[in-house]
Amino acid sequence: MRMRQSRSKATRGVRPVTPIRRRLKVVWIIWLLYRMLAMPVCISITNDAQLDIIGGIVWQSLWLIPAFVLSPWMTKGKSAYALLLASMITLVYFGASGVVLFTHIYAENWSSLWIYVIDAVLLLLINIWLFQLLKRLPSMNNPVNHA
Predict the structure, then answer these.
(1) Is residue 95 classed as helix, strand or coil in its secondary structure?
(2) Are the C-beta atoms of 126 and 89 separated by less than 8 Å?
(3) Largest Cα–Cα separation, the chain
(4) DSSP designation for 2
(5) The pLDDT of residue 30 is above 50
(6) 60-88: string of b/e by CB count within 10 Å (b at 16+)?
(7) Is the model's pTM score more than 0.90?
(8) Is the Cβ–Cβ distance between 15 and 136 less than 8 Å?
(9) What is the pLDDT of residues 113-147, one digit of tens each?
(10) CA separation (Å) from 138 to 101, 125, 134?
């Protein structure tokens, strides 16, 4: 005989958002640090031409301005509207990262390919956690009446 769990209908469909928020926050911070600091250093090390690391960090910082603007929303993970906008912007980052990755594959630049694979994987994880979190947050279509 099966034992039934006694939960009300209201709590059956509710899934916790805290683990997803935590994962999203961690992966977001890792990606920002990787993209801004580790990526220019790794590219400078693997490239034969002696590239300026400080110039690479400045360039990546400029490229990440929209991501820095999104950071408070991504680390809190509470506003569905803000996370929806963040999702669209991170998909643009993911698309750009994929283009760079496939450009290096096409150019057969195998020595620095792993740098761009890590970037694409981190962005893929960010987008996965964002979609999971957006599914678990309260619906934006059902406003609460305060009458």
Answers:
(1) helix
(2) no
(3) 72
(4) P
(5) yes
(6) bbeebeebeebbebbeebeeeeebeebbe
(7) no
(8) yes
(9) 999 999 999 999 999 999 998 888 776 666 666 55
(10) 36, 22, 8
Alpha-helical runs (H) found in 34-112: 39-46, 53-63, 65-76, 80-106
Number of CB atoms found within 10 A of residue 119's CB: 22
Rounded to an integer, what distance in angstroms lies between the CA atom of residue 140 and that of residue 56?
40
Q: What is residue 14's DSSP assignment?
A: -
Task: Compute the distance between CA of residue 8 and CA of residue 13 in angstroms, rounded to an integer.
Answer: 10
How many helices and strands, by DSSP H and E, does the chain display?
A: 7, 0
CB 73 within 8 A of CB 82: yes
Helix, coil or strand: residue 46: helix
